[in-house]
Predict the structure.
Amino acid sequence: MGDLVLGLKRALKCKIPPYFLISLNKLNEFYYKMKSKTIK
């Protein structure tokens, strides 16, 4: 959760478009889902 807040703060500083941040978050969620599947 802290990483997302950091990313949001960084995005606000760099004025990154919100849709980019959303897609990055979706990618992150997907990565963690795949990671948990490989562990189990």
Observations:
- The two ends are 23 Å apart (CA to CA).
